[in-house]
Every structure is written in structure tokens, then in C-alpha cells.
Amino acid sequence: MTADNLVLVGAGGWLHPHWQGGFYPADLPDDWRLSYYNTQFQAVYLPAAIWQAASAPLWEQWLNDTQDSFRFVLEPGDAALAMPASARVVLATPAWQAAHVWWLDEMPDLRRLAQRITRQAATGDPLYVFSRSGDLGLLEQAATLKQVMGY
Prior knowledge:
The chain is an alpha/beta fold and 151 residues long. It has helices spanning 33-40, 48-53, 56-64, 94-100, 110-123, 136-148; strands at residues 7-12, 43-46, 71-74, 89-91, 101-103, 127-131. It has one domain (3-148). Helix 1 (33-40) links the parallel strand 1 (7-12) and strand 2 (43-46). Helix 5 (110-123) packs across helix 6 (136-148). The chain is globular, with a radius of gyration of 15 Å.
């Protein structure tokens, strides 16, 4: 894992109503939102209800609409439903989440996040920093911290 993709910042989904006209330009077509989101963030956390309802063609579109370094982190859901076969898609089991995810809404303390990033960097495994609520202020702070720390 390189420093460029050691810390990946994102939100729980990319369709937050309060982002329209603020984060997303008012005239941005709905089907361009994921591509635009990917210009600012490196990952997205998708609830099981969202990703499991997506068809194979929709998954193909999502993967094509994002950069090769972008990651989809999936909430565990119905084990009978297969997730897309792509190295860019990760199933976030509870054990995996404990080792790889920092929830900004629950732990907005940037000093503790910086300490976690330092510990994570020593392992070489990525750390995903997410806001479930899509709090743009917290996401901006996390992105700034990432940049200041050289990731």
C-alpha cells in the first residue's frame, strides 16, 4: 500500500440530500454525482440495502464512473447475495471494520485520528475514514489531516 492510498476518506453513500446545491453544483445531473463525488473522496461505504439492490449493469456503471484507486466498502448483508467481483469492492465484516475503519461521526477527535493513522501506517494496511451522515465539515477536516500527515 502506498502513502497515496493508505488513508481513504469518504461518506456513507454519495446521495445526501443536504449536499445538493452545496457540495454538488445545482446543475449537476443526478447520474454524474458518483463521478463528482470521486473527485473529492477515495471511498464510499454502502449500506447492504443499497449495494444488494444494485443490478450487475449498475455495478458496472459505478465501477466505470470511478477511478481505479476508488474503493467501495460494503456493509455485510444477505450472505446469499454475491457482491461484485472486483478488487475495488471490499466487504466490511465486523472484524475487518475494527481493523480498517474510523467513523468520524462517532469519533471526531482529530488527535486520536492522527494517532490511529500513524499506527495504521505502520501496518501498511489502508484506513478508511467515513462519515455516515455525510458531514462535510468533518470530512474536510479528515482530508486536511490526511494531507498534513503526507497521505
